[in-house]
Amino acid sequence: MPRVVVVTGGSQNIGLAIAEGFAAEGAQVIIADIQPPTNSDFIFHETNVADEFSVKSLMAHIESDFGRLDVLVNNAGICIEVPIQDMSTEQWDRVMDINVKGVFLMTKHAFSIMTNGISESPAIVNISSIEGLGANPQHSVYGASKGAVASFTHNTALEYGPHGIRCNAIAPGWINTPFNEKFLNQYPNRAKVDDEIKSLHPVGRLGLPEDIANTALYLASPQAGFITGQEIIVAGGRMAKLPLPKL
Ligand SMILES: NC(=O)c1ccc[n+]([C@@H]2O[C@H](COP(=O)([O-])OP(=O)(O)OC[C@H]3O[C@@H](n4cnc5c(N)ncnc54)[C@H](O)[C@@H]3O)[C@@H](O)[C@H]2O)c1
After folding, report:
1. Which residues, at least 6 apart from 204, have a Cβ–Cβ distance to it below 8 Å?
2. The one catalytic residue among 142, 160, 187, 218
């Protein structure tokens, strides 16, 4: 029987690359997103991860149609660019609701189906960010939300481990998706800033959605059977490089 995998926010970019990676391995992939996928080969279940009713409906659908859930990838996330002084409580809550409460609700309601005895090595992969480890300007709530995802990953590993579920996070660095466009468009010289951002990476390039997908596939595989409660940084060496004026 193929593994059953659910990817939140899987309709485009990083989430879609993850969905495509699992599908290429023969898994049955369900995309749970507020909008339909750009690749219509997938089963789509319209889901708002911040809404408990919506998450429960997704899990009921997976239970009745597949009877198992092997892998949960909590990828859905949003970012807003607002200085702390200008941020409303509604803006704060919106980011926290999707990025943190969404991970909690999915993790909570996936438990019973992931532990029904059918999955051989169930696993959860959360997508956090290097912004949970260091700050970019105007990203306070986003950074706080991703730090919370990393922390929640530790607790999930602790509580779910005895039930056979491993849980890890991936902290992507700069992945080349439209997610970063609003931020980049604030710079007057876009070509220059693109080059400068590239130069922050010892590997000499920006990240691709496939870089995150490949890591998710590994973390959800039996080869990663002794890895849980970890946050794996996938950032082309950017976090290993101390800032210094160019020689
Ligand atoms: N792109 C990057 O550089 C980068 C870096 C670090 C971390 N990340 C994280 O990776 C993840 C994916 O990033 P991306 O670049 O593919 O972003 P994206 O905006 O292209 O995709 C996010 C997806 O989440 C969906 N989504 C939004 N709100 C939702 C909700 N309430 N319920 C269900 N789905 C919802 C969107 O419809 C979209 O399909 C996010 O969690 C993001 O924070 C991205």
Report:
1. 198
2. 142
